[in-house]
Specification:
- The chain is α/β, with parallel strands linked by helices and 431 residues long.
- Helix content is 49%, strand content 9%.
- The longest helix has 19 residues.
Amino acid sequence: MSDTSTNTLQYRFDGPDDAPVLVLGPSLGTTWHMWDRQVPELMKHWRVFRFDLPGHGGAPAYPSGSVNDLAGRLLGTLDGLGVQRFGYAGCAFGGAIGTELALRHPERVASLALIAASPRFGTADEFRQRGVIVRTNGLDPIARTSPERWFTTGFAAAQPAITEWAVQMVRTTDPGCYIAACEALASFDVRPELGRVGVPTLVLVGSDDQVTGPAEARTLVAGIPDARLAVVPGASHLVPVEQPAAVTDLLVRHFSSAWQPAFDTTSGHMAIAASPVKPVLAAAPPVAPVAEIAAAAEQPEALGRPDPYDAGIKVRREVLGDAHVDRAFAQADEFSGDFQEFITRYAWGEIWDRPGLDRRSRSCVTLTALVAGGHLEELAFHTRAALRNGLTPAEIKEVLLHASVYCGVPAANSAFKVAQKVIREETTPQE
């Protein structure tokens, strides 16, 4: 067991001290106990290192808003223990951390297994919406529906104790850390970089996974040069829990046979054999390369002050959501296209991206200004944006009450009707 700080993670070791280290990374909402049924066999071959995400499993609640930051905390924890090189297996969110490690710190990762993983988890809107629901209603709605996402119907019905364990595991997670993890997944997208993953990789997925299923797994296999696919029948998203024996066997076989040698400390180089023809552990149709995951062409650096358009489109999507921005650009034509470019560059790239105010404060200012101007249509989507930026319904109410004094009661009356409708839509859990 471990003591943790803001720069490290809660962890535990199992297995002999002199064995090579195998790190197991958890899914969002779970704890290291999701690997309990793999550990007895794995620890015969490796020193198994498990960790909890911040605020999960009783770990200190130091939120982290990016996958890269969590990968850094994991490396900081391993550095403190003298572990320099390791194999890594991660499920879902844990898989994102593993991919990040293989991309940013390839010298540390000897072999990789990505379970129920994806180069991009759904859409940014979906995860930010989940954060809004948790911020408003707590984790209970997410906890109650977790078994539907994690397990097949038959398994959930036959294993009520495990199903209840899953519910309680989510329910006892720190809400702030859960929301921060949702933000981390919302911004995670490594599709253009998959070709740079240079370690032997097993991509493992449940055949019935409706969250990150076989299609996402095949995207990973198509993009990673030395990857192979294993589809586990009769399993959903939390496949290590639902089909523990199959997952254990696949992990033992992979890490026993695919462990890349370390860098030569004298030359600084690594001897890498030519990539073998990819073996496929479960039958799968041929996969053509996916255009989305092709390496992005490098662009020459612009001289002088950078164009704020790129920053603007990023901030605009993060605040208003992909669906809203895509709709605005789809509706633009020769007449209105220049205006869309103008507000992206100057409103979002210049003003919203300034460091002087955080996004919560900018949402408060924006809501008040829209009430004053009577711009109810824009008030609606900026109410959604305010929720995404971290304001609670109670705080939005206070902004509108304050605005009623300075902008007028009739304006605030109309604003309350618009905001009330949006808040109901955005904060009502989907059954």
